[in-house]
């Protein structure tokens, strides 16, 4: 059986950004009044059809033998050796076959990274000090929001993102390399990341980046044990928070949200390994970035905007078919689905000229996204639907989508 635990709860986070980082964990522990699902150990069998919102008890038992190894096959773009991590990621195997101590390996990785300012910032593993509240970002801001985007550079930005999106994407078939991990396990983990992102008021872009990092890491590795899957997801979210947020949650909070399933040392080591495998390529284009760019070129109403954002987040739940599409195509499909639902228009001429995408190129992804959105109500994972039921997002998950699209 695939068991999960729900022994951590959630409290109000109103005004949380103004609380010093050192007191946020204590405040969370005292104020939690409702339950939030916390993953523990992903056991062997799939649990398709189960919703985490039902409050099922999580078990911290694994049917995996202690002799099982987490085998990192090494990302071709980042290193020439294979990495084998036992339990808390303690051994690195060099190309020569000689075992190296991971502490030494990580120390060398840090030393090399310090030569580059961007990498140095990413490798800051100590707890973040809380910045002045005036420095806080709005929860739903974006680096490519309409308010800050300089339209005269929009074409250059778009071309740059298009060039990088294929280089920094995951393989659609990567689960074949991980016999212990299933589609449903990944979907449960993504839903958990959504819940954590909401609890800590993280940007939507942070969530998209975290899923990108996780998928790319699993594409570059093999035989990751199910008991380490949540560790990978947590490390991915921690890195994405450091990259995207002004004041990310500190290390203690990331340990706490896993119900202390992992220790600080394990999380820090997984962060270092993940950064190394991804070769410190953290500026990955996401469907969220493309969508904000499209909406700055051809503006839409708040209802349409939030419905498109809702559709792009839903696409994060499924590897197939959405990893076979580029993030820009997923964003275009979400834009079309939202505009057709709200005002019966599709892909405007301005975006056709700007992107070069025709409706014929968008239709396959749009068809899949429409099917996913129609079936979202019956999906076991309901965190995204619940998120977009709030007035903050114009309650767009309550909207009834058209049963048939005009080109079907």
Automatic annotation (TrEMBL):
Cleavable signal peptide: none
Q: Does the keyword Electron transport apply?
A: no
Domain (Cyclin C-terminal) spans 285-404
Give a yes or no for keyword Cell cycle in this entry: yes
Which residue ranges does UniProt annotate as crossing the membrane? none
Q: Which UniProt keywords apply?
A: Cell cycle, Cell division, Cyclin
Record-level GO BP terms:
cell division
Region of interest (Disordered), ranges:
1-27, 39-68
Give the top-rank taxon of the lineage listed in the UniProt record for this protein: Eukaryota
Pfam (any one) = Cyclin_N
Record function comment: Essential for the control of the cell cycle at the G2/M (mitosis) transition.
UniProt lists the family membership as follows: Belongs to the cyclin family. Cyclin AB subfamily.
How is the subunit organization of this protein annotated in UniProt?
Interacts with the CDK1 protein kinase to form a serine/threonine kinase holoenzyme complex also known as maturation promoting factor (MPF). The cyclin subunit imparts substrate specificity to the complex.
Q: What is this protein called?
A: G2/mitotic-specific cyclin-B2
Annotated organism of origin: Stegastes partitus (bicolor damselfish)
């Amino acid at each position: 059986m695939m068991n999960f635990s729900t022994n951590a709860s959630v409290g109000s986070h109103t005004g949380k950004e103004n609380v010093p980082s050192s007191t946020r964990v204590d405040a969370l522990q005292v104020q939690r009044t409702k339950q939030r699902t916390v993953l523990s150990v992903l056991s062997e069998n799939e649990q398709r059809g189960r919703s985490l919102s039902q409050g099922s008890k999580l078990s911290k038992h694994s049917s995996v033998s202690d002799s099982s190894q987490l085998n990192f096959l090494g990302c071709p773009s980042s290193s020439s050796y294979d990495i084998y991590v036992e339990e808390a990621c303690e051994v690195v195997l060099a190309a020569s076959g000689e075992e190296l101590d991971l502490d030494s390996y990580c120390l060398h990785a840090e030393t090399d990274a310090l030569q580059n300012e961007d990498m140095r910032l990413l490798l800051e593993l100590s707890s973040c000090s809380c910045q002045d509240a005036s420095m806080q970002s709005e929860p739903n801001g974006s680096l490519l929001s309409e308010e800050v985007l300089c339209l005269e550079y929009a074409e250059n930005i778009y071309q740059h993102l298009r060039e990088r999106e294929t280089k920094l994407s995951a393989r659609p078939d990567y689960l074949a390399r991980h016999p212990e991990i299933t589609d449903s396990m990944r979907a449960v983990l993504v839903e958990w990341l959504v819940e954590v992102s909401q609890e800590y008021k993280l940007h939507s872009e942070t969530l998209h980046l975290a899923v990108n990092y996780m998928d790319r890491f699993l594409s570059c590795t093999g035989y990751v044990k199910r008991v380490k899957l949540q560790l990978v997801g947590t490390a991915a979210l921690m890195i994405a928070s450091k990259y995207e947020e002004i004041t990310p949650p500190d290390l203690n909070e990331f340990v706490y949200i896993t119900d202390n399933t992992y220790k600080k040392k394990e999380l820090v080591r997984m962060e270092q390994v993940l950064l190394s495998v991804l070769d410190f390529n953290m500026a990955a284009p996401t469907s969220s970035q493309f969508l904000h760019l499209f909406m700055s070129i051809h503006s839409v109403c708040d209802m349409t905007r939030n419905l498109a954002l809702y559709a792009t987040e839903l696409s994060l739940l499924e590897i197939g078919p959405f990893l076979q599409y580029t993030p820009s195509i997923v964003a275009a499909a979400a834009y079309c689905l939202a505009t057709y639902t709200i005002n019966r228009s599709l892909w405007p001429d301005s975006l056709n000229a700007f992107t070069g995408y025709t409706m014929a190129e968008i239709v396959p992804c749009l068809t899949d996204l429409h099917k996913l959105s129609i079936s979202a109500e019956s999906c076991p994972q309901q965190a995204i639907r619940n998120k977009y039921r709030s007035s903050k997002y114009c309650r767009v998950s309550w909207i009834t989508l058209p049963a048939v699209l005009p080109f079907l």
